[in-house]
Amino acid sequence: MLFGCASDDEDEDTSTLVAELTEINAQFEPEVLWEQSTDEGVQHYFSRLNPVVAYDKVFTAERLGDAYAFDKTTGEEIWHVDLSNIDGSRGFFDDRETARISGGGAAGYNMVIWGSENGIVYALNQENGELIWQAKVAGEVISNPALDSNKVLVNTGSGALIALDAQTGEQLWKTEQSVPPLTLRGASGVVTSAGGAFIGNAKGELVVYIIDNGQQGWATEIGEPSGATELQRIVDVDVTPVVFGDKIYGISSNGNLAALDMRSGREVWKRKYSSYRQLTIDGNQIFATDEKGHVYAIDRNDGTELWSQLSFTNRETTGAVSIGDYVVIGDLEGYLHWLNKTDGSIVARHRVDSSAIYVTPVVDEGLIYAQSRDGELQVIKTPE
């Protein structure tokens, strides 16, 4: 009977176990300059809502619809608007309906842009939060728009890339791509350069469109379908591409990290990494976090792996951002971790709050802006 109740440790599946944090020899203590709370945050929902630093302000939003601007230096609230009642039509006794804000932010042309799962794009005056325009688009807005050539470029979850007039919100053009029956929850943000709008798609491609008219240029496949099931063969490129010099870099959720010639789409090099987290390039180093939470430094010129940090298995680590001599990532327990750029060793740790750091932190002028699922926003200085 005792034998029948015994467990076989060898049969235990350890592939989904979350790595425990271990003690580190901290080399410094990060300093919190100010913090604010956006009340509800994004809760447990999928979201890539990120803080935006522009116009000497920090803009942020939460899923229900509250959007804020804080003074960049002091953290004092400058304005606050409710996007779920932006037209003021909700009565005193009416229940509040969530605006389902899930895309953005982005700033430019004296505006800050947010998008929603309801397919609505909001353009707010950056000075006072007043609505300049709102536009209905085809599909969910669950990634960052781009502002270029007096246009707001939005890539939606339905496979549509849409150009809106930055002054009026009028749709100028729309392109549509076929979407496989089974894809990941997510969509690539838009990055622009030299008259082109670059995105990843659910077919595992990096694609460029001409900003002026939406005409497609090249499309290069970087994902590699493999496996027996449709789930295993998902190759979405949900990470916003990164332009650096005359190259563009992208990574597939199941496939490769690739460097392409920006003008022709020709493959320069390709290496086997899979991710749906933000890429960061600093000098000749690419910093990437894979689907298991492992962090890598990769040579930008030829794709050679410089170091790997494997301590964060299944900790749902964010993309890595570069600051000084370090790269910083967040995790599912609300911690930020500082890694030495030279060898990937962990040199410092700071907890924002007990909920997850769900989106890659933002770096501006040597400061880190980190946001948690529960809506905690902190501005953190790394000692020199």
From TrEMBL:
Keyword tags: Cell outer membrane, Membrane, Signal
A GO cellular component entry from the record: cell outer membrane
Keyword Amino-acid biosynthesis found: no
Record localization: Cell outer membrane
GO term, biological process aspect, one: Gram-negative-bacterium-type cell outer membrane assembly
Transmembrane regions listed in the UniProt entry: none
Domain called Pyrrolo-quinoline quinone repeat: residue spans: 65-309
Pfam annotation, one family: PQQ_2
Job of this protein: Part of the outer membrane protein assembly complex, which is involved in assembly and insertion of beta-barrel proteins into the outer membrane.
Family per record: Belongs to the BamB family.
Quaternary structure, from the entry: Part of the Bam complex.
Name this polypeptide is given: Outer membrane protein assembly factor BamB
Source organism of this protein record: Thalassotalea mangrovi
